[in-house]
Design goal:
Layout (H helix, E strand, L loop, with lengths): L3 E7 L5 H8 L5 E3 L25 H7 L14 H7 L20 H18 L3 E7 L4 H7 L4 E6 L2 H11 L4 H8 L1 H5 L4 H9 L4 H20 L7 E5 H6 L1 H11 L6 H9 L15 H10 L8
Parallel strand pairs: 1-3, 1-4, 2-3, 4-5
Length: 299
């Protein structure tokens, strides 16, 4: 399985980050780390993950990689992907749906070489990446024809509520709300009409966006062979992490490593799930149900 790339995908807040955290305990995986966040052009700091291979001390450092800022930790880093694939990041002011056909050959080559360099520096046979937000499955597949995808699925109500809350707190999510009219113009007509029928609120907009993103993932992943894609439930990852991780690894032809078993045992997966304590009013809950309804034409 040399030079295989695996991508964890799904809408924001649907669970790819938790899965990335857990799966990077597997010794076969290389991954993008926080060490290259400031300068994606310099990938040499990626080699620092090899410190986790040192007997005894490696496990000690690995368990503390999120607590000590100087230790390399896995990260999604959209800036990395945009540096090597300029069309990767969406612009809220002028959003566009890019596919693999929008990529130039020189960018394909640079991106492949960058990921290969990370694998060489970390001395790993597989690469594990996380990509959330609008689907870029066709784009990544164009760059990495051998790529496999693990899609995380979560109750769209929870995803929409979290996304709407972020619109009030996070600059990027707030920009999504501010430029909602531009985004609506890219949606299928059925979803555009749904937004027109619903009150103009962050929660309703988030609900429709989540349904749209799920539609994109379903459509793009359906074009791939079944051997190259799998879906996992966020709820199962929280309730039965051992079983869910074994399923993911079996899909990739791997067996759980001892480090992964220890990491899951002593890692509080539920801590990653910041549950909502506020119940929605009946009218808001009813509107959200309308916002997240499936598209009949797509399902």
């Amino acid at each position: 399985m040399d030079r295989i790339r695996v991508f964890l995908v799904g809408p924001p807040r649907s669970g790819p980050s938790i899965l990335l955290d857990l799966l990077t305990a597997q010794p076969e995986f290389s991954y993008i780390t926080t060490a290259v966040e400031k300068d994606p052009a310099n990938l040499n700091p990626s080699a620092r993950t090899r410190m986790y291979d040192v007997p005894l001390l490696g496990d000690f450092w690995f368990e503390r990689r999120y607590w000590k800022t100087k230790l390399p930790a896995p990260a999604e880093l959209p800036d990395f992907w945009e540096y090597y694939l300029p069309p990767f990041r969406y612009r809220h002011e002028e959003p566009a749906l890019h596919t693999g056909e929008d990529l130039e050959e020189k960018d394909l080559l640079r991106c492949r070489e960058a990921v290969e360099e990370i694998q060489d520096l970390q001395k790993r046979s597989l690469f594990l990446g996380q990509v959330s937000g609008p689907s870029r499955v066709t784009m990544l597949r164009k760059v990495f024809p051998e790529a496999k995808f693990i899609q995380m699925q979560r109750d769209p109500r929870s995803v929409a509520i979290h996304l709407s809350m972020r619109m009030k707190q996070d600059r990027s999510a707030n920009a999504l709300w501010e430029h909602r009219e531009a985004w609506r113009g890219l949606m299928p007509e059925a979803l555009q009409g749904r937004l027109e029928d619903l009150p103009d609120t962050p929660l309703n907009f988030a609900g429709v966006m989540v349904r749209w993103w799920q539609f994109q993932y379903k459509s793009e992943l359906a074009e791939l062979p079944e051997t190259d894609r799998i879906s996992l439930a966020y709820a199962d990852l929280l309730a039965k992490p051992d079983i869910t991780l074994k399923r993911a690894l079996k899909f990739l032809g791997l067996k759980p490593a001892k480090r992964l078993a220890r990491y899951v045992k002593y890692h509080n997966v539920q801590h990653s799930n910041k549950r909502l304590t506020k119940n929605l009013p009946d009218d808001a809950a009813a509107q959200l149900e309308r916002a997240i309804q499936k598209l009949d034409s797509a399902y």
